[in-house]
Amino acid sequence: MDLDSLRFANFSDLDAAITDWEQMAARLKVLQGDAKDDLAVKAGKADWAGENATVTRAFVDKTAGEFADAHTQAETIKKIVSDTRGELVAYRTQLNTAIERGLKNSLIVRDTGEGSFTVSARPDTAAKAGTAPEPTQQDVDVFRNEIQNIMKKATESDTSAAKVLTLLVDQAKHGFSDASYADRDSAAKAVAEAEKIAKILKKDPHDVTLTELNSVNTTLAAYKNDPLFAERFATQVEPKKLLEFYAGVADPYQGMGRDPKFHEQAKKLQKNLGITLGTATLSDSAKMQGWEEKMVKLGPGRLGIDDAGDPTGFGVMSNLMRFGDYDDQFLNSYGDKLIAYDKERNVEDMSPWVNNWNSGDLNFYGKHDRGRDPMTGFMEALGHNPDASTQFFAQPEGAGKAVDKDGEINEHLKYLTQDRIWLADPTLDGDSKINAGKDSLGHALESATTGYAYDSDPMTGKDPLHPGSGDHRTAATAGVMEQVAYLYGSEKGPEMLHKQSELADSLGKMGAAYIDDIDYSLSGLGDSATDAEAFPPKYAGRANFTDQGAINFLSVLGQNETSHGVVSAAQHLYTLSAMDAFPATDAASMDHAHDAMTTGAEARGILDQARVQQAETTYTADSEEANKSLARSGDWIGLGAGIVVGGGIAALPVPGTAVAGVAIAPLVTDTVGEAVNTFIGHEIDKGVDAAEEDPTEKAQTTSSEFYRQGTAQLGDSYQTYLDQNPKQADAINRAQWKQDIEGGYLGTGTIQGDYRGRPAYKD
């Protein structure tokens, strides 16, 4: 900045700009409210169909969100410009005050252009008269330094404001950025911190000290979700250098000679760096787009380093992307290339990843996963990025109303579930019987079908991508779910589930998330006369499984203890919510309650019959073990103790899982009534009692007893409805609801079981 530019600065244009931005921000705030409360709400309630359910609906939702981003960006620009204006005015005042004081002491400042100036002394009248001393060289130097300091600060304020405003605007190529800063200082500091630690990552990782690595982690942890910081950091470090740095820190060739504390810092680096890079990919700037293209291009090639067994780009980046919110297009481009590369090398006993010569250890999370298979890390990334996973497994264009043939299955989904050879990759203290890759595939499918990160808790808002509760299903997520149900409900389904037992909890959670659509598909006569009033759609473009497809899928889910329990609990809760939603106030409401209970009984019968057949088949020679298995399968009723409801969904605990322990299940209405609350409250006490029992002392359960318990539970639900509607009890009994419910459960579950649904799996 030139001295005269600041000295004689006229801020009227800047003042006018600030006023314009203030007015713009105020108007956009109103539009933001209108878009959220009017446009988005109406879109959510509209009955979309066909392409409108996927294309138009998504466009409306995105447009509503853009108004919020526009307001955020306008507000941030206003704050930065206003803050910079205030600083420059203050520096102008300091400069003019200093110049006036210098003149009184015979010191003159002259602007020499291009940011330079001179300071000189001139004899004045007082000095000639001997009443004032002439300025010394020291006086000149001190005065010059004072002016220089003011100009340096003003220049920094001006240039940093220009830098952050440019970075801010470049964040979104189309639309607006949601980056928010309180003032210029905070935005400028974020950029400066990014540049500071980027210098460390440019070093040879073997020369980086523990203090430096700690500084990197501390800074990344503080700024990992800051858009300007993340982009500036990523673009200052080239993709290849970044991968080399992490590989060198995580698994150096001389690792045994390093300070043990490096291991702790390397673990933190994996998470902090992964989240930061994810934030960076959300920028649409040209520099960041170029960075992403380079990273994808690096995937198949080796880095040419001694660390981590000279890994490929895929081998390193997949471990970093286990954490963070990544750009959907980046993940899909990355995944497309990884799948293509993997397919060419998918040969028995010749894995390019898990083999004797791949010595890299780049994952610090989970003792069953060394991180050598990049597909596992990529699946984890999809598991944390629902929109990206939904796109990656999207139903092919041209599919019919329901998936009923292999040609309507996404190629990525078909390859990963049916064709790919997944190998276990445990650490030295891990279990080789646990395949982390298959578990991660389940995580990816969970996010693709539910719209939630697989390990989020929608009831507490601990989901970093979609805070708060609510149903996040869409026509697109339903399209993925239809494919999953078709694949695992196919003739190969039982074999797939049993050879991919790591997916059982995920498949159970997916079934729970779509229990309303499953019931809807079961509610008609074949595929006709389905009951949308008794099973109302909770989102536009609901899933269509077909009657037989729903039966097949449930019959496979029922074969596994975990998936059987989760889906049974979701089914029970959904039916109870229907009983609350359809009181016996009129004939139509009673009809809906009847249909909900009978269809729910049918679904329960399919699940239970599959569980009995599988237990008998698995433990052919050991009836005691079969009985124990059925006893465990009856424990799902205790899940009521941990159920939390709100926003039209319920969060159910998933037994046997340490991290991803919450299944999301829809309710008929947004509010719950006595039947649901009684179930939850009643089971709290039972859950406590069960926790105090010794599992080895639990009574065994025969198949007949198992069905008796099922019938009794359905009877309890029926009685609850009668108790809630005593005036209609006689009419309901005369209409033989009890017989209809029992017939739905036993008729489908046992008598017709041999030819409805898939048979039990035999080794």
Q: Helix amount, in percent? A: 55-70%
Shape: elongated
Distance between the termini: 79 Å
Beta-strand percentage range: under 5%
Largest sheet: 3 strands, antiparallel
Quick check: average pLDDT?
84
Radius of gyration: 33 Å
Q: Helix tally? A: 29
Number of strands: 5
**Low-pLDDT ranges:** 463-468, 683-698
Helices and strands: which structural class? mainly alpha
Main-sheet strand order equals: 3-4-5
Quick overview of this protein structure:
The protein is mainly alpha-helical and 763 residues long. It has helices at residues 3-7, 12-45, 55-104, 125-128, 137-170, 184-201, 210-223, 227-236, 239-250, 261-281, 286-298, 313-320, 328-343, 374-384, 386-392, 411-419, 436-450, 475-488, 493-499, 504-513, 515-522, 547-557, 561-581, 587-618, 623-633, 674-691, 703-724, 729-734, 737-751, and strands spanning 107-113, 116-121, 644-646, 649-653, 662-666.
